[in-house]
Amino acid sequence: MTTVYIGLGANIDGPIEQIHIALRTLKALPETQLIRCSSLYGSAPLGPEDQPDYVNAVAELETTLAPLDLLDALQAIEKTQGRIKHRHWGERCIDLDILLYGNETLNSERLNLPHHEMANRSFVVTPLLEIAPDLTLPDGQRLSQIQPEFDGDLHKLQSPVIDL
């Protein structure tokens, strides 16, 4: 089993419920076990400002799925939940990103590991630190040493979801 961290985000169609639906679906995913989830955080949109604020979280999973198979599974969850890409960095009912896949590094057309922008996003680093405060990234840097450039309006909305 490989430990992976998934970033979850939503800002339309009941974003908190969309995150909960995605977590329940991740929990039921074959060859995968949901270990824990961070609190839910609210943040201003990173892209176009004429959209609602986001709800974000990070989930820790254990999986035997290969990275691209996991990506396919996450994209299937997004599609099932009705995700439609309206515009780059625009509003979405659900967004699921593989942040880290063990200590693996990968740069392909479909997937970059670790996620190429995770260190620049407080709405990723803060919830990830909550559930993995001692995490060391594949390049040897400790997560606790990262200071994201994006320091938007991030606030805790809910404690971790226990009963998924």
UniProtKB/TrEMBL annotation:
GO molecular function: 2-amino-4-hydroxy-6-hydroxymethyldihydropteridine diphosphokinase activity; ATP binding; kinase activity
Gene Ontology biological process terms in this record: folic acid biosynthetic process; tetrahydrofolate biosynthetic process
Residue intervals of the 7,8-dihydro-6-hydroxymethylpterin-pyrophosphokinase domain: 88-99
Pathway: Cofactor biosynthesis; tetrahydrofolate biosynthesis; 2-amino-4-hydroxy-6-hydroxymethyl-7,8-dihydropteridine diphosphate from 7,8-dihydroneopterin triphosphate: step 4/4
Enzyme class: transferase
EC number per UniProt: 2.7.6.3
Signal sequence extent: none
Record-linked InterPro entries: Hppk, Hppk_sf
UniProt keyword annotations, A-Z: ATP-binding, Folate biosynthesis, Kinase, Nucleotide-binding, Transferase
Transmembrane segments: none
Keyword Kinase part of the UniProt annotation: yes
Gene3D superfamilies per record: 7,8-Dihydro-6-hydroxymethylpterin-pyrophosphokinase HPPK
Family assignment from sequence similarity: Belongs to the HPPK family.
NCBIfam families membership: folK
Described function: Catalyzes the transfer of pyrophosphate from adenosine triphosphate (ATP) to 6-hydroxymethyl-7,8-dihydropterin, an enzymatic step in folate biosynthesis pathway.
Designated name of the protein: 2-amino-4-hydroxy-6-hydroxymethyldihydropteridine pyrophosphokinase
Organism: Thalassolituus maritimus
Lineage start: Bacteria, Pseudomonadati, Pseudomonadota, Gammaproteobacteria, Oceanospirillales
